[in-house]
Specification:
The protein is α/β, with parallel strands linked by helices. The protein has a single domain, classed as Vaccinia Virus protein VP39 (Rossmann fold). The chain has a seven-stranded mixed sheet with strand order 3-2-1-4-5-7-6, sandwiched between helices. Strand 1, helix 4 and strand 2 form a beta-alpha-beta unit. Helix 7 packs parallel to helix 10. The longest helix has 19 residues. The radius of gyration is 19 Å and the shape is globular.
Length: about 290
């Protein structure tokens, strides 16, 4: 029998091999808005993180690093001297290792499961531990956060950029209704298909696709302060923008035309208003935490 961890690794192998990325943050307007929500400034959060929020780090551990894009950036601009990073996907790690060689960067990229990290933590300690789109795939959150606390140096920091919405992305009916009403009012040129709708997946589809998707995501904001001291916490929305972009024609909404930018700007403003009114929850968060 294939374990859920192996199944998830296979899923991510396919995603990285096919270069599939989350649709909503591929749009420049949405990307800048998400950064603004995260940090208060419309600049990439990694740049903001070290300029001047945190001091440069000596040793960083990235958990669930994917293809290593964040780690390559941090090593390339000198924000971190030594980086250890792991992911369950051999395809992603091969891509990361190849990019590091091409850029002449020394980064220790490893193929490793979350469960292996918790069972056998590294003997090294780190100034910084990074979760970016990975913690919401962890089933044993308590074990993971406890292990991170053990390998974090005194004065060190944990950075979390995560989905914290409903488990398996099983959105409440009220959220689905809002998204589908917006799709109903959307000009057909922006839709991925004439009948584009947000529909919940079946349990069979969830298990076949990725049984770790948001597996305990709603607990992340509550558990983090039980293990670390919050220094910066922001809820960053996404309850409309994240799911609706999968129903849109990416080639059109991202073409930079005046009509496309007006439509995306409307979506951003609508999500802000609905979230402020309490009609939508925040499905994503960004936080910086310390041991003391």
């Amino acid at each position: 029998m294939i374990s859920s961890a192996d199944q998830a690794a296979s899923h991510w192998d396919e995603k990285y091999a096919s270069a599939v990325r989350s649709a909503w943050v591929q749009n420049p307007l949405v990307e800048r808005e998400v950064y603004r929500r995260m940090t208060g400034e419309p600049v990439h959060w990694l740049w903001w993180l070290f300029n001047p929020t945190l001091p440069k780090a000596d040793r960083m551990l990235a958990i669930g690093c994917g293809d290593g894009s964040h780690e390559l950036s941090l090593a390339g601009n000198g924000s971190v001297r030594h980086i250890t990073a792991f992911d369950a996907s051999p395809v992603a790690i091969e891509m990361a290792q190849r990019a590091a060689r091409d850029q002449n960067l020394s980064i220790d990229f490893q193929v490793r499961l979350f469960e292996e990290f918790v069972a056998e933590p590294p003997s090294d300690t780190f100034d910084l531990v990074l979760f970016s789109g990975s913690l919401h795939h962890v089933t044993d959150l308590e074990g993971m956060l406890s292990t991170v606390r053990k390998v974090l140096k005194p004065g060190g920091h944990v950075v979390v950029n995560e989905y914290v919405g409903p488990i398996y992305q099983l959105y409440p009916q009220s959220q689905i209704d809002i998204i589908n009403r917006v799709l109903d009012a959307t000009p057909p040129v922006f839709l991925a298909a004439p009948d584009a709708r947000l529909r919940l997946p079946t349990i069979e589809a969830i298990m076949a696709h990725d049984p770790t998707e948001g597996v305990r995501a709603p607990l992340i904001p509550a558990l983090l302060p039980m293990y670390f001291k919050p220094k910066h916490e922001r809820r960053v929305g996404g309850a409309l923008l994240h799911p609706i972009f999968d129903c849109l024609n990416g080639g059109k909404v991202n073409d930079g035309s005046a009509e496309s930018e007006a439509y995306v700007s409307m979506l951003i403003a609508l999500e802000n208003e609905l979230t402020a009114a309490g009609a939508l929850n925040h499905d994503f968060m960004f936080g910086i935490y310390s041991l003391d």
